[in-house]
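Input structure tokens:
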């Protein structure tokens, strides 16, 4: 098992022993501004590693997506949509974006580093979640989903894999690569999500070409996830290969079975979240706050993270599959830690080639379009501007903060 606390202490000692670099605050953040520490995961759209920003020594998670693979899998639009959404939002129970940038090979998103692992990992480790713990997750996610609704965003992929815990055990929603934005009066229609967590109206709309669906679908997913955390399995036996027609039939014939060991309030709350008709489903913060099933919840304390979670991940360990690091070092054909040398070689090779002899004009065209359209983002600079600091003062503030570390 990887001992994160010892390693982090060692990294801190080595960093403080050498002088921190100072970057020009007017320069766009790029790959060289970060030290790559270790790989911690991979998803459908890319890989994730822990990084440390060289000038501030702050730790982040960095998600990187290979441009060519995104083009081949027709995923560029989804990456751009995720970036568009993340650049506009920030919330205490979301995994927030701090920087986005690109190089010749990859697109990068640098986000909050949450070291408590995702809920799928903890389910696989056979963690027994109590009703009180799951109730807190529901409340924290209710605040996150209510915020997303205020920003016209449907997440469409709420599930244990996409809920990360911080070191204190609080829940944070991540992964917006299939999220969508709908304006007043609009409805979503695409068949998007992870089938076992998708709401009945998504399948019904796809099959019948009905009126579509809205924010209620995320609350159904929250109910499915909460049930799974409590029981160890989901309330419906649904798999990715199930035909849509069979799922529409399933929701009209199969009833959810609740454990007799659960409290009346827990069952009542899950029933409200897992109501097949979206018009009668709990699907906004107002519903939750007015519910007798959550009568004892101090919502302001929840929002300020003052309610202590019942499950706190072990702070001495990194809660992820250790094989991710081995994959990156041994199996990955373009490992991140060798990027600088690789790009330098590619440049010299490109300079010796006649550009008219491109093997794949279409690929080159797409790569150029990404290079042109990609939006570089720096939340740190945005916060400085919002605070009324002039660019010359940013460095001074960083230096003062560094002296306090």
């Amino acid at each position: 098992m990887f001992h994160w606390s010892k390693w982090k202490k060692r990294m801190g000692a080595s960093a403080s022993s050498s002088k921190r670099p100072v970057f020009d605050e007017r320069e766009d953040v790029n790959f060289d501004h970060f030290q790559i520490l270790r790989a911690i995961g991979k998803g459908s759209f890319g890989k994730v590693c822990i990084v440390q920003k060289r000038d501030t020594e702050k730790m982040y998670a960095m998600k990187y997506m290979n441009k060519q693979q995104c083009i081949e899998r027709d995923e560029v639009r989804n990456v751009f949509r995720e970036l568009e959404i993340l650049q506009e939002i920030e919330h205490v129970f979301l995994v927030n974006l701090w920087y986005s940038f690109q190089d010749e090979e990859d697109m990068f998103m640098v986000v909050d580093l949450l070291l408590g692992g995702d809920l799928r990992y903890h389910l696989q480790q056979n963690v027994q979640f109590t009703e009180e713990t799951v109730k807190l997750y529901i409340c924290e996610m209710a605040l996150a989903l209510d915020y997303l609704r205020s920003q016209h965003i449907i997440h469409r992929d709420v599930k244990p894999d996409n809920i990360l815990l911080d070191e204190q055990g609080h829940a944070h929603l991540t992964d917006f690569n299939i999220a969508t934005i709908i304006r007043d009066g609009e409805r979503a229609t695409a068949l998007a999500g992870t089938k076992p967590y998708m709401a009945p109206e998504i399948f019904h709309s796809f099959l019948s070409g009905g009126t579509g669906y809205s924010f209620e679908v995320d609350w159904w997913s929250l109910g499915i996830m909460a049930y799974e955390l409590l029981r160890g399995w989901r309330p419906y036996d649904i798999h990715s290969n199930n035909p849509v027609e069979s799922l529409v039939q399933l929701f009209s014939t199969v009833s959810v079975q609740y454990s007799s060991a659960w409290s009346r309030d827990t069952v009542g709350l899950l029933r409200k979240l897992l109501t097949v008709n979206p018009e009668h489903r709990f699907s906004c913060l107002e519903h939750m706050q007015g519910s007798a099933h959550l009568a004892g919840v101090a919502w302001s304390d929840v929002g300020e993270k003052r309610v202590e979670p019942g499950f706190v991940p072990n702070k001495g360990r990194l809660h992820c599959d250790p094989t991710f690091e081995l994959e990156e070092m041994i199996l990955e054909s373009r490992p991140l830690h060798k990027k600088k040398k690789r790009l330098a070689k590619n440049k010299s090779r490109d300079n010796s080639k006649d550009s008219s002899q491109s093997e794949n004009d279409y690929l080159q065209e797409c790569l150029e379009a990404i290079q042109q359209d990609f939006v570089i983002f720096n939340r740190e600079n945005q916060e400085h501007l919002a605070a009324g600091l002039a660019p010359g003062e940013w460095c001074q503030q960083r230096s003062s903060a560094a002296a306090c570390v």
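The first strand starts at residue 34 and ends at 43. The chain has two domains: 4-115+320-404, 119-303.
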